Amino acid sequence: MTVTAGERRYRLDVASRLAGGDFAIKIGPTRHAYFNVRAADSMIVANGGMIVDDRGRSRGNAVSGEGARWIDFCGPVGGGHVAGMTIIPHPSDGREPYWFVADWGVVTVGAFRLKGLSLETGQEFESAYTVLVNDGETDQDEIKQILQSLQVERRTT
After folding, report:
1. How many domains are contained in the chain?
2. Is residue 76 reached through a cis peptide bond, with omega within 30 degrees of 0 on the bond before it?
């Protein structure tokens, strides 16, 4: 995990690697997420929070499922201030992110909902996620820059 502090946000880059060791590994297909973040109670939709994805869809039921490139969850945190978090899964070969997002404050994403993972001894699976935790409104330009860098990174590897 790498944490980078900005003027009004933190960027967390989280990488994970699963490897078949002495035994093979099998995961899913499963509805359980591989990566999960939780919003503060003050930020949930019932308390004035908002959920939106890259397609402009809003609320948990609408953004859950396949296809979103990112999910943003923001809301009030007290004293008239707003904070939020944007979750950006990095591309993973042959796997689309599958989201479960709930208005009550959970954002989960995983690559094993529709297609299980089997790793034999010596095989590996890597995944990565970027989370932006911001004070104030979400910086749409920064999200675009991150997505562009992920596309460049994917083409060069």
Report:
1. 1
2. no
Q: Are 66 and 114 in contact (CB under 8 A)?
A: yes
Residue showing tokens 């499922």? 65
Best CA proximity match to 108, nearest among 35, 59, 15, 49: 35
Structural domain of residue 132, as residue ranges?
A: 2-156
Within 10 angstroms of residue 18's Cβ, the number of other Cβ atoms is: 15
- The DSSP bridge partners found for residue 46 are none
Task: Note the pLDDT tens digit of each residue in 50-106.
Answer: 999 999 999 999 999 998 999 999 999 999 999 999 999 998 877 888 999 999 999
CB 37 within 8 A of CB 107: yes
Mean pLDDT score of the chain:
90
Q: Residue 45 in contact with residue 61, Cβ under 8 Å?
A: no
The answer to whether the beta carbons of residues 106 and 39 sit under 8 Å apart is yes
Q: What DSSP state is assigned to residue 80? A: T
DSSP per residue, 11-33: EEEEEEEEEB-SS-EEE-S-SS-
Phi, psi of 117, rounded to the nearest 5 degrees: -125, 130
